[in-house]
């Protein structure tokens, strides 16, 4: 920080006035006024120079590595301003995200460009009986609201037939909502979804509507995290991620949850078998 002060009206460097040299005959009232002014200046300078509150380290995202199918249809995201940005759950050094404690402010400490530009979406897919399902797991560091908690995992499943997304399922407070293609807005072939705070409750992804083209994330456009597919992790990183305890937030792409999650998310009339190998 420089010693120069800026003029509050013009933004230009102000020329400091000559220091006031107190007179030995200054009155007690004048001395009190001078001391008050000096104290205010010291307080202001201390506030200007004070460091910002420490935040959890931003992890560097894993490089994109996924099947062409998973990348081709990967959802396009925006993030309402009353919530965190998605970010990496595991960094390229293998470190797991420690998350952030809730503090009553839905976006505090978790909504900045370094986090967003280091976001991954973790994918896994399965095809049978003429249909393919692609699940995308997205991580944020906290979920503020009634029943809020450190860490958040939200999931989206795309149901694809004849090289076209026919249905979109998205997690909603422990359940699934299912939409057919006519209800979904697309960025090209990519379904548009928005990370959204539902009233006083916690966050979830919802389908985008027309007004959501007024983008709220800082890139100014629909955002695409780097996709990491089932075989796209380095070394043992996938096992580290899936075995990690994220508290009440759970990731659904692991062997212990994936098939059941597909069963719960799929449209009831599909001939898809969620348990097929």
Automatic annotation (TrEMBL):
Region listing for Disordered, in residue ranges = 1-28
Compositional bias per record (Low complexity), positions renumbered to this chain: 16-25
One matching Pfam family, short form?
Answer: NPP1
InterPro entries per the UniProt record, alphabetical: NPP1
Protein name, UniProt field = Necrosis inducing protein (NPP1)
